[in-house]
Amino acid sequence: KAGVTQTPRYLIKTRGQQVTLSCSPISGHRSVSWYQQTPGQGLQFLFEYFSETQRNKGNFPGRFSGRQFSNSRSEMNVSTLELGDSALYLCASSLAPSQSTDTQYFGPGTRLTVL
Amino acid sequence: AQSVTQLGSHVSVSEGALVLLRCNYSSSVPPYLFWYVQYPNQGLQLLLKYTSAATLVKGINGFEAEFKKSETSFHLTKPSAHMSDAAEYFCAVKGWGSQGNLIFGKGTKLSVKP
Questions:
Q1: In this predicted model, what pLDDT tens digit does every residue of A82-104 receive, in sequence order?
Q2: Can you spell out the DSSP letters for A91-110?
Q3: If DSSP codes are grouped into helix, strand and coil, which group holds residue A85?
Q4: How far apart are CA B34 and CA B105, in angstroms?
Q5: Is the Cβ pair B98, A43 closer than 8 Å?
Q6: C-alpha separations of B71 from A52, B75, B86, B108 in Å
Q7: Interface of B with A (CB under 8 A)
Q8: Tell me: the pLDDT tens digits for A11-58?
Q9: How far is CA B44 from each of CA A71, B19, B90, rounded to the nearest angstrom?
């Protein structure tokens, strides 16, 4: 069974632009969570989607948004990019919503660099 | 609020030596605890998880962790380090109720010397 895939793997953008990242979960998984990883703040939760509904949201500004499609694929969007948005963005999928004990499986991440 | 603290941002051991990575948690309810490993330029891979069953949890690659409620600890161990164990290790606790997301520690980078 294929793992979680994320595209693109690397992105370079400039301040003020917007960016869309994509995540395809493991086949059959309906929950997708997004995390931001930076050297300073570590791993921080962005949001979770289950059956096309946002179930949970971390403490990030409204410039960060996401959505999930009927096939469980998810996208996250960051508008008006700032230098501090440079990070590794990780997507994780699981069968059930994150409140369960189901394991979250992570993708390889998208490395975003904002210049 | 739940949290985890990983003691030591960097641990160095010799090949064949014991690996001990420390994690302490804070939780007002029985926690679900996890250890993940991250190799350079890769995502996170689950090593093991504790979900209130046996307190000694065995994971992949020879790692294990023991849940100690009295010490609020969930330390990760491996009897004999291998060069391939060099990576960054993250301890995480699952949020409670509707906040089921993972809350991660700052990570511990493990170096293995030949």
A1: 999 999 999 999 987 766 678 89
A2: EEEESS-TTSSPPPEE---E
A3: helix
A4: 10
A5: no
A6: 40, 10, 27, 20
A7: 32, 36, 41-46, 49, 51, 90, 92, 94-95, 97-107
A8: 999 999 999 999 999 999 999 999 999 998 999 999 999 999 998 899
A9: 23, 19, 9
